[in-house]
Amino acid sequence: MANLVTLTTDFGDSQGCVGIMKGVMACINLNVKFIDMAHDIPSHDVFHAAFVLKTAYRYFPEGTVHLAVVDPGVGGSRRPIAVRTDRYYFVGPDNGLFTYIYGENEFDAREITEAKYTLGVDSTTFDGRDIFAPVAAYLSLGVSIEQFGQEMSDPVRLDIYRPEYGKGLIKGHVIHIDQFGNLITDIERDESEQVMDFRDVRIRAGDLVIETVSGAYSDGPPGEPVCVWGSHGHLEVAVSQGRAVDSMEGMDRGAEVFVQANE
Amino acid sequence: MANLVTLTTDFGDSQGCVGIMKGVMACINLNVKFIDMAHDIPSHDVFHAAFVLKTAYRYFPEGTVHLAVVDPGVGGSRRPIAVRTDRYYFVGPDNGLFTYIYGENEFDAREITEAKYTLGVDSTTFDGRDIFAPVAAYLSLGVSIEQFGQEMSDPVRLDIYRPEYGKGLIKGHVIHIDQFGNLITDIERDESEQVMDFRDVRIRAGDLVIETVSGAYSDGPPGEPVCVWGSHGHLEVAVSQGRAVDSMEGMDRGAEVFVQANE
Amino acid sequence: MANLVTLTTDFGDSQGCVGIMKGVMACINLNVKFIDMAHDIPSHDVFHAAFVLKTAYRYFPEGTVHLAVVDPGVGGSRRPIAVRTDRYYFVGPDNGLFTYIYGENEFDAREITEAKYTLGVDSTTFDGRDIFAPVAAYLSLGVSIEQFGQEMSDPVRLDIYRPEYGKGLIKGHVIHIDQFGNLITDIERDESEQVMDFRDVRIRAGDLVIETVSGAYSDGPPGEPVCVWGSHGHLEVAVSQGRAVDSMEGMDRGAEVFVQANE
């Protein structure tokens, strides 16, 4: 086992919630090592967290447990879930956080029902502490995923946008906005380059037309919009030394972006 | 020893102060492991930090050192303090940060005066680096608390609100606001259920009357106020998928909350 | 080796970027330990990050690798750099982040060109993941700095202000603003006390005249400006229980501060 647990939450850094989850895990596995993935996920934004997990999970050692708690439905009927893929484990609420993981991997998903692997506390508002942290710690110790509960064939998947890769025209969407205000689309490089020669395209995002894909955010003069293939292989709309999301009206998550091959 | 040190500060994450404290500790005990509890405590808000420590300290392995630096009086006459309870250690300024710890535990408190366990730097503005971090590191190494200085019989305690549990009427106060804007009161579940049947109560908070204690924040339609027993056993006033603190005028820390048994 | 890597970035805590860098390092050196220095550096503010590194790097065990990624020119022509001083290593973009390190140490700087120590990913927008994290991990494993590339004699240095220590008059500048809004100047204690007796001086900052250097931020009544020798040995202008930067118009980075000896 890697003994590694990553943590992705919307808990911020003012309340001690992440610390408490780590304390719970350290009580179960004193050798566990923690890597914080993100704790300033916008409150209750499952889509944002799902995208962060998509871009990050592959960069960790085999056996890493990815614990994610963005959980607007805590205490309600949504199920707690543990998932095993070929190389990793995922633990959190079954609300779509792992949508991209399911799309990219074979997986075994379990509804967490085995009480002996949870804290057994009479509380319904902090499952991160009471259920997800202990399960992650037991997974990091090598407890087999079958031990936590029955297989689920139907874990919740978010209703995510789907890009359309047509001959000469790609239609995509802004699916994420990063800390620099860059607009990240669902247009992926590998698929795109199969339908189009990107040396001669026009990209349309809102009122904006961009004529080239640059190699760096800093290409072009400050304040000018640029398109780049971002670090996760997605087409991004950025503003050189600025924040695209603030300077382009209406370009929020869901906004359409088009790539058109020139004649 | 657990070799574990938690850190609770108002230092934020832009200045390197927390990193410096960890570096100082790593120089003294290279095997020390750190768990960040909270670093976005509102500046100088000792009450907030005291509540975070109250809710968190029990979830850590025996021997854990809880280091807390929210220290508006740094460089002044307030004393540096190290505290031992049955299972844990606490280090920080003697300004009331550990008020709840004293209330819930037998303890041995020491004024830190032994210079050989501090950095001995000629500075008066960063005792976190110069005094508290080294003392925490030496505690994590197993140095006995008696070594740091004389016993103090009178550590500073905050003037905290006290709820009144009457037959048929409980009077409490908002004592904390969490990252989701939930109002956490000092009304505790165990005491409350001894004086009242919570299946038939009315809760009054400002202009608001709530007729039931829900099982989850997400009970009731979005935007509606709900009461829940929070994860720390305190009665909370929340707004389903919203922020109670923003939608309820005047309900800041100190505001009164009443629970009345129906006839 | 200390097996210790510190991280200083402007990546915030909402995107998973810091987590990804740690995952990359853990894949190369599973025993590496991480200490977060600062991740809320203002976006692209190389001056801010350089100051944080200056104040922090000395407090870590020998052999610590200081990884810093504040990188507005990512993907452009700026070079990736690895630096060795007597006790530490530094890795990041060659944009001046290590200006103060060069000024205070003998050093060996290398342009990172050896592809086998990088991820070899076809991306130009996240060198933190693809170049700097792997190089830091290999340094933490003990790979010699000569292995990463050719020596650079001319690493980029920021154009930083220089204080003037005259007989009876010191002229300095605000070079940093900390999380409490304190104005930190480039006037250093050791140099200052050689040209002046600080028991009898007048300090002028904007419209303000302060007649004494206090021992603590909390000296003087709330809201009053005070001067202190800060924890890094620099003269600071603060407001007791307030934020100097918000109450003193025009006192931003670069503003002049004068210390005059009284007759």
UniProtKB/TrEMBL annotation, chains A, B, C:
Domain S-adenosyl-l-methionine hydroxide adenosyltransferase N-terminal: where? 5-149
List the keywords (alphabetical).
S-adenosyl-L-methionine
Q: Which residues form the S-adenosyl-l-methionine hydroxide adenosyltransferase C-terminal domain?
A: 172-247
According to the record, the segments passing through the membrane are none
Q: Which InterPro entries is this protein grouped with?
A: SAM_HAT_C (IPR046470), SAM_HAT_N (IPR046469), SAM_OH_AdoTrfase (IPR002747), SAM_OH_AdoTrfase_C_sf (IPR023227), SAM_OH_AdoTrfase_N_sf (IPR023228)
* Sequence similarity: Belongs to the SAM hydrolase / SAM-dependent halogenase family.
Q: What is this protein called?
A: SAM-dependent chlorinase/fluorinase
